Fold this sequence. Notes:
The protein is an all-alpha fold. Helices cover 75% and strands 0% of the residues. It has helices at 3-8, 14-24, 31-41, 46-88, 95-117, 123-141, 147-161, 164-175, 181-209, 218-240, 255-263, 277-285, 289-302, 305-308, 311-323, 327-332, 335-355, 358-377, 383-393, 399-412, 417-435, 438-442, 452-476. The longest helix is centred in the N-terminal third of the chain and has 43 residues, at 46-88. It is a multi-pass membrane protein.
Amino acid sequence: MEPxxxxxxxxxxLHILYFFQTILDTPKRGRFEERxxxxxxxxxxxxxxxxxxxxxxxxLTFCCCSFFFNHLDRQAFANAYVAGLKEALxxxxxxxxxxxxxxxxxxxxxQIPSSIIIHKIRPRIWMSSMVxxxxxxxMGSAACKTYAQLCAVRFLMGLAEASTYAGSIYIMGSxxxxxxxxxxxxxxxxxxxxxxMFAGAMMAAIxxxxxxxxxxxxxxxxxxxDGIITLPVAIFGxxxxxxxxxxxxxxxxxxxxxQLALDRLPPKKEDGHxxxxxxxxxxxxxxxxxxxxxxFSVLGSALQSYVVQGLMLLYLKFRKDIDGFTQSEVNTLxxxxxxxxxxxxxxxxxxxxxxxxxxxxxxxxxxxxxICSIVLLVPGMSVAGNLTALYLSASAYGINPLLYGxxxxxxxxxxxxxxxxxxxxxxxASDGLLWTFWGIVMFPADHAPYWRNGYIGMLCVSAAMVGWxxxxxxxxxxxxxxxxx
Length: 485
């Protein structure tokens, strides 16, 4: 323990840092627990394990909580739509899909600027500020009276949320080694699934207990509560997020630990944070790595269409009166899809880090989506058959640690931080571009409960992903150090 170094180097209340320090100083554990933690932190020196524990606590707490509330908002919007928002704002046709696309458009516009800004403004300041902005906009959603107002709010929310995904992946790639990143990426993306699960339960509880309270409808209370409980995450980030190893001033890291954080990672180029426009454009766009990763990201995102577009919610809403589903059942029955996603993501990440078998995992995930699409494509399929296929389709979330874990490992070998962050942001922006039209074209809400074009499209996406895995494997074999010039 080094309490003096930790407690005198930061302008925070001493008892807060001491509290965190006591958490991170590991007590004696049993053999099974030690084996599990060794699997998480690796078989390394005590000093490195202690550093990784600190990184996990402070980095993953902020990143995972940010992503949790990011997805809580997205799912809360979907739940609100089927619980009164549609009727309150008199939404019709595919306006639901347009609203989803507005958030995606905001994220598309904001991704690359955000990835450049964090090389000028410290990530803990920029990313935490964006959490405050989107929390305020979430609460503002409750006050929207028209479709146009909600479109504007959703676009601005997407703009603010753009810093979260690519920014978090960039920060994790700045601190963790190649055999550590997939598990952390999975924990990060799993936080989003937990947020979606919580949104369904929260919507059901609020619909029953808060409907009509203070003259507000249940869906309005969801947005208000969602925004309020997001704010503590921003406060934590302002004070404790460590930025990147090259210039971190985190008080809970000693000078020795900061040097260890640099020494344990591959060397970086001296101009790796250079964001001069023409230099950065040449380094990012002048080789195939950007394009291979972006197509990989688009296909991986499209592979998750069934859950991302909330098809089960739309299906259950259509079947509500026919089959006698209650509103609470409509909100809660989709929750297990996120449990399936969590299991898939954690399983893929641990299998990747331990056995390094990325191709076979990708083939397995694509095969499951092909089977689910064939089942859903059958006209007149029973409710049980549809729900089973939609539950299993959530295994597509397992593509996230494969996608960003593999891409982060490839990009880290370039030793160019600015190019790496912009490439990651370009991948996320490509996803945003996809969602500005994909849901409207393939899964319009007014086509419920049967989306023939969408099911056929998913068969094509799954087949294309199988082929593209070979392209990613090809680029992963490049001698990438010094390649971005």
